[in-house]
Structure formats: structure tokens, C-alpha cells
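Appendix C reproduces, verbatim, an entry submitted by the partner laboratory led by Prof. M.T., so that reviewers can inspect both the input and the predicted structure.
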Amino acid sequence: MVLDTRPVTDSPSDCAAWFRAVLTGFAQPPLLTEEQLDAHRRLMDLSRTVGVFEGDRCVATYRSFDQQVTTVGGAALASNAVTGVTVLPTHRRRGLLSGLITADLAAAKERGDVVSTLIAAEYPIYGRFGFGPVTSHTSWEVTGTRAGVDPRWSGPECGGSISFADGAEVRKLGPGLHDRFRAGQPGAVNRRPLWWQRHTGEVDFGPDAWKEPFHVVYRDTDGEPQGLVTYRSDATWTGSMPDQRATVDRLIATTPAAERALWHFLLSVDWVTVIAASGRGPDDLLPHLLPDPRAARAREHADFLWMRPLDIPRMLEARAYPAAGELVLDVTDPLGLTAGRYLLEVSPQGASCTATTRGPDLSMDTGALSSLQFGDHTPARLAALGRISEERPGAVRRAGLLLHTGRRPWCPDGF
């Protein structure tokens, strides 16, 4: 049967086929209620949602949407965010993904997006399309009884206050708090209103049943929200004693005081003996804000956000640089969208990136260049790994000085 690649319409049958394919591709039960499907149809932008159809059956899926991702210095890059990418096991190795992603990236470049971003479910897939990992995260497990936080803790030592909030209050104060957080966090992405609706239970997208979590807000001495944590707790008892596990869904903070206060609050909750937190940033104050840092154990460390450039001059000119200097970068691109040689001239006052015919200082592909953009990898490390080549002696060291960042990137949100 002929395969037809086309945008998904808002008809119930089209949407049902597309979402069934997405859930099947991610090894989840392909079942959504009529109410959940209706919510998807009403609230999702289907204009860049594409499926490969074999008759009425969808066998491959792909979606992109507009996104803002923070670069070093606080500027927001216009991104083509890619999500919902699946090919059914029955239709692999036919070039379906290649066709979908190359068409979408070409359209994104034509549209004027600076980069494209995605969360890679599997590491080997996206490098061949010019993407590279740009952020990493760590999963922690903290034994509260060993952490050393005073069990009589009754509030932030630095002042301010801790209070519970319901979903409606989080939808009201959360967006502004998050915008202030992401302005200072390279790698963070914006959250649309639908994000807040989904993560506070106002909208049910499924397939898992919604369970109300706990939301806790830290406010400074002026009453301004500076931190927010969302967590869940089980009801475990061991030997007639409470032995509960608190799972942190999300924790963001705009100040070290807010971050410290929220972690200390979690460690003071009665009956909780273990705290689990996944997807935490590499610059988290945890575990060293604990009197006994060994009470926190790293259970996983992995790459998370991936990115590729669509406009190299605009990408490099948008970030901040700590010193003055110049580099000539020779960049290869497996899709041919951004290949070229670029003269990057930078200072703390700004940057200029233009095409040049000068001999290169460094050579790399777009994936390696992406890894340098936010600073999670240093030029010296990538050179040691063979991902960049030093064409002029001293260029790697010079690049390290020019691209140095004071804070490692982190993306708290999947998409």
C-alpha cells in the first residue's frame, strides 16, 4: 500500500490515528479517552503535526513547534522544537524519519529559526541530522535520616516564607517565576500556558490518570515568589512506622536562598525518609547544601536536551562572552544547511560572526558546535574526544577562554 506523508487534520479519526501511533511508538498502551482526544484537538497546534499514513493507519509521526531556549548571557534563541517522533516497528528502515526531519528542518531554516531542539529518546539517532547534546542532568536519592538537617527545622534561616499552593495559584504565579528563572539559566526553555494547565491538572491529556501533587512556594522577605517545588509522596509504612518516599517532580529557584529553603523543607516533612529527584541540573546546590553530602547519591547522569544550529551567525552572536578575541571555525553539516567557514569576533560588549575565507582555527561538525554553545562541554574536552580538530596551535586553549561560562546549562523540561 502507498505511504502518504501529510499534515494531520483536526478530524477525530485523523487525530486518533496519529496519537495511537505516537503511544505505540513509545511502547505505551495506545488508548486515550474521547475527552483526552478532544482536548488534544482543541488545545494543540496541529499546523506542524505530520503523519505518514498507510490507508487510515498512521505508521510514523512527527511534530514541531515554536520554542525559546536561553543561551549564555540570558538571550532567548528562536527554536524549532521537535517532538512526537516515532516510526512503528513494522515500518522501520524505509527512510521515513529522514524524510520527515529533513523537510521540517529546511522549513524551520526558511522560517528564520536560529536552532532546532529535541529530547533524544535514544542517543544514536539524531547525530546524523546535525544535532548534538547540549545539556545534562542528574537523578538523586537522598536519605533524609542521614542528611543532617535539623528535624526541628521550622523555616528558612535567611528569612522569607514557605507555603503550600493549589493548582490555580501555581497557574497564576508560576509563569512569571519561571520566566525569571529561565532568564538566568542557559538551556532552559519557555513554558506555554498549556504546560501549566497540564501540570496542574486543569487539562487531562492522558494516558495516565491525573494525581494531585503538592505544590510549595518560597517567597522572599518582600513576599516575592522565588522558588517552587512540586512533589508527591507515597504511603509506605515499615514495621508500623512511617517510611515514605517523596518524589520531586520539579523544583526551580531564582536564588540560592530559595533553592536551599525548598530542599530543607522537603527534608523536614514528617514521615518522609527518602527523597527522589530526577532530571536535576549539574549546578544544583544538592548535595553540598546538606550537612552530610553523602546522604545524597547520584543514581543517574545522562544527556538531555539536544540542539543543532540553523543559523550559525545568529546563534553565536546571541550569547555572551567573557573575553575579547577571535576564532575561525570550519563547520560541516550532514544536511548541508549551515556548512561553512565563519569568523567569530567577540568581547564582553558583544559578538560578530561572518562568513570568511581565512584558514580555520578549529574544525567541527554542527553537533560539536552545539555542545560548545551553552558550555556543557569545553573545547579541550571535545578535542580530546576527537569531536573538534585544532587546525592552528593554541586555538583550543583560546576557544576555552572565549567560550567559558560561569554556569553549566540545564533544561528542566521535556517536550
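The two ends are 32 Å apart (CA to CA). Additional entries are available on request from the coordinating office.
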